[in-house]
Amino acid sequence: MNAPTKSPEPIHGKGVVKQHLIDPEICIRCYTCEMTCPVGAIEHDDNNVVVDVTKCDFCMDCIPVCPTGSIDEWRVVKEPYSLDEQYSWSELPEQQSLEQDASPDEGGDDPIAALLAEAHKGTGGKPKAPASAARPTVNLYNLGKPATARVAGNFRLTDDPGHDVRHIILDFGAQPMPVLEGQSVGIIPPGTDSEGKPHLPRLYSVSSPRDGERRGYNNLSLTVKREEKGLCSNHVCDLKIGDEVQVTGPFGATFLMPDDPDARLLLICTGTGSAPFRAFTMRKQRGGAAPGEIVMFFGARTPDSLPYFGPLKKVPERVLKKHLVFSRIPGAEKEYVQDRMMVEQDMIADMLNDAKTHIYICGLRGMEQGVEEAFRSIAESIGLAWDATRDAMREEGRYHVETY
Ligand code: NAP
Q1: Does 159 share its domain with 235?
Q2: With pLDDT > 70 as the criterion, what percentage of the chain qualifies?
Q3: Is 363 in the pocket of ligand 1 (CB under 6 A)?
Q4: Of 100-104, 369-373, 388-392, the least confident
Q5: Where is average pLDDT lowest: 191-195, 272-276, 347-351?
Q6: Does residue 2 belong to any structural domain of this protein?
């Protein structure tokens, strides 16, 4: 049975409606929103993920599951954007100015502004790229027209037998694949699902810098953990040199590095969430326009399950200040990234007070809350209100979260 259709939400009966949209520039095509929507209002074609205004009932279930915040977009419109219009976009249209006739007693001075201000409530603001970041290329290869990459390497990164994390190198030959540090690509697993449809791509952060895993080569690397029943992670972790892989992307337009030598980066990650930070670090090591100071808090179960543990330890402190913390070392107390942040609170307080600081959080969704609590406590200890500080940083393109 089809779900009942519904009219978009009218505003004060004045001939305008509030419409839920997705920002195609920021969306990384992970399709989590589509899988979460209880009323089937979110769908995709080869190019974009879109919201059907006749089905969306504003339940907000899709908002917290989106890793990038691209889902948290709203426009007040006289005529809702059709699915075809949304499918054709590469950028989200600006809010159009509307003739208003709602009187103050019907909803304040400006009901449309009030309504738009409600957006991003759940995420604390719209994510923005750092002002000095290079402009990324987005959605160059889509579901209908993926790039074909050839596997140039597949190396195991962890000694823990129960924790297989791989470094996969993909070569794109003559096909352009311009990626910036912090962007992701999709891998389409071969075969079809139970309904006979091709599988959707799975998203992986690129772990190499913009000039290639091997400098000057048209290749990139991914950091992929084998999940016990993971369809795509097993496919990727089992790839052999020379195998062909179908790739979509690049995706992501905000989780990017500032090209500002005075910037200071505070990177916080768990497990394979370290992938983009390897790219950031290599960018700096190779002498690209990169921030002056990079501090990293990196949580893993044990040294044997921390991806790139060996090479990471050799990175000099002048390039990367490292805080590696472990939660499952026999005989030792469990330590999470947020615990170490509290130990290093004076240094973090100094960074929070500096308008050149950029914060990046990547990895397990569960870490977000603990990390925010640590920031709140540190901010309050120096008289800063955390919510306002974080929202201002996000507005200035200095606060970035990508968690799954
Ligand atoms: P993992 O090994 O399961 O966990 C890494 C560390 O995080 C462990 O020490 C774990 O401790 C700890 N941890 C667990 N809950 C925590 C919490 N609430 N706060 C702080 N630390 C916590 O990690 P993984 O298997 O590599 O998973 C990494 C995650 O990152 C995956 O969910 C993946 O999808 C995501 N990821 C995201 C991106 C991205 O956003 N771009 C990229 C790559 C990966 P315990 O001993 O308690 O388990």
Answers
A1: yes
A2: 90
A3: yes
A4: 100-104
A5: 191-195
A6: no
272 lines ligand 1 (CB under 6 A): yes
Query: Which residue is associated with the tokens 């973090």?
Result: 348
Task: Fill in the DSSP letter of residue 13.
Answer: T
* Nearest CA, atom 25, ligand 1: 271
Q: Where are the alpha helices (DSSP H) in 242-366?
A: 275-285, 309-314, 337-343, 345-352
Instruction: Give yes or no: residues 159 and 114 share one domain.
Output: no
Give me the pLDDT at residue 319, please: 95
Of 7-16, 39-48, 395-404, the poorest mean pLDDT is in 7-16
Flag whether 224 is in a domain.
Answer: yes
CA distance 262 to 358: 11
Q: Are residues 269 and 397 in the same domain?
A: yes
Quote the DSSP letter at residue 153: E
How many angstroms does the Cα of residue 227 sit away from the middle of ligand 1?
Answer: 13
For residue 11, being part of any structural domain is answered with no
The strand pair at 357-363 and 321-326 is best described as unpaired
Is 252 close to ligand 1, i.e. is its CB under 6 Å away? Answer: no
- The CATH number covering residue 396 comes to 3.40.50.80
The protein residue whose alpha carbon is closest to atom 7 in ligand 1 is 270
What is the mean pLDDT of the segment spanning 36-61?
95
Mean pLDDT of 96-110: 55
386 and 298 within one domain: yes
Range of the domain at 380: 264-403
Regarding whether 185 and 102 lie in a shared domain, the answer is no
Assess contact for 373 and 338: CB atoms under 8 A: yes
The answer on 235 and 202 residing in a single domain is yes
pTM: 0.89
Residue to probe by mutation, ligand 1, list 364, 403, 404, most atoms within 8 Å of CB: 364
Nearest CA to ligand 1 atom 42: 273
